[in-house]
Amino acid sequence: RGSRKAIQGEEGGQKGDSLALPQDEGREAVVEGHERGREFEGRGGEERARMQSVFLGVFVSLLGNSLIGSSFSVMKVAHDSNKDGKSYLRIPTWWAGTLLMILGEAGNLVAYTLAKPSLISPLGAISVVVNVPVGWMVLGEKPSMRNMLGCMMSIVGGYGIVWVVASGSVDRPTMTAAEFEALLFQPAFMVFLAISFGESIDLIWSGRRTVMTYVMVCSLLGGVSVLSIKAVSSFVLLTLQGDNQFLTLVPFTTLPILAFTLMLQIKYLNMALAEFGTPEVVPIYYVTFTSCAVIGSSILYGDLSETSHQNVAVFVFSFLLTAAGVWLVSRGSVRKEETRARSASLGQSPYPNSEELEDDTQSLL
To answer: Which of 30, 65, 92, 269 has CB atoms 3.0–4.6 Å from 126's, for a disulfide?
Structure first.
């Protein structure tokens, strides 16, 4: 009788175990499902935060470049009104244009912190596009069909660039000095630095006074300055958040390089504009500077490392479309002035009809 009860007890225990096993498996499945859900939710939150940072950077860049484009027209008003040749420091309009340009450049500095340099650099074309309607409102310069076509091409190309880069590889919103130092010593980037500085020194020492000489110096050094701005802004942001990045030599090495490249870039850009003017300089500078910035950022930060071949093709096409639009805008804006200057040099009237003379008189007033 005792053995029979023992057998029945074992059978009951086995049935209990068999009934409890599915319940335990169910609990484990529920727990695992919650964990996976939290993991996916965390990844989704990171992706949303990344996209918010990218589009905020695009918005700040568009705003900053719009201010820069507006500053061109405002400063041109100051130049046109300075008939007595007095110091520009005494002209309020000149200060207004300078302030707009400083605010715009500060916006670009913030944008480089929020998004990739390969995304922010091409958006500089917006300053040329914005200058068309602002010039119409401020200076009375009526945009031609050439201007309008160039603006449309630049806008469409800019949209393509934003779409490709925003959907590409994961961005590094901020990076520590140690991470930046590790990226610096990549063999490919060391070659990029050697070419940038070596070719710049060769062009400067050559003494050639051509538009390509000036613009290539600006572009090669400008590509380095863009990468330095991204790094320095990251160091400053992390330091303000409590993680001091200025305890190593990396930031103190990057800052002088940034200052040196920016000064030479501004110097040779002004020399190019003084000797050749906007129509020749602006399109070439946009193409070469943006190319150097995108190539350098792709090597150093891996901006396009996870982008498909189709998206790279779209990026290149969008960039070329934007460059063509910038060329049309910059050439179309001076076509009328070149014609009038040529007519005046030949002793002819610079105004072939009374309507143009009336338009310019109204604009001057």
So the answer is: 65
Q: Report the distance separating Cα 218 and Cα 64, nearest Å.
A: 21
CA gap 242, 157 in Å, rounded: 40
**Ramachandran angles phi, psi of 298, nearest 5°:** -65, -35
Which residue, chain included where needed, has tokens 């996976």? 36
Nearest to 301 by CA among 137, 182, 144: 182
Q: If 0-12 CB within 10 Å is exposed, 13-18 middle and 19+ buried, where does residue 4 land?
A: exposed
Q: What is the pLDDT of residues 48-70, one digit of tens each?
A: 766 777 788 889 988 988 888 88
Closest C-alpha among 128, 127, 121, 132 to residue 58: 121
pLDDT digits (tens, 9 = 90+) for 123-164: 887 877 887 788 788 777 777 788 788 888 888 888 787 777
SS (H, E, C) 64-129: HHHHHHHHHHHHHHHHHHCCCCCCHHHCHHHHHHHHHHHHHHHHHHHHHHHCCHHHHHHHHHHHHH
Please state, in angstroms and as integers, the Cα–Cα distance from residue 126 to each residue in 61, 95, 196, 215, following that order. Answer: 9, 22, 26, 19
CA distance 331 to 325: 10
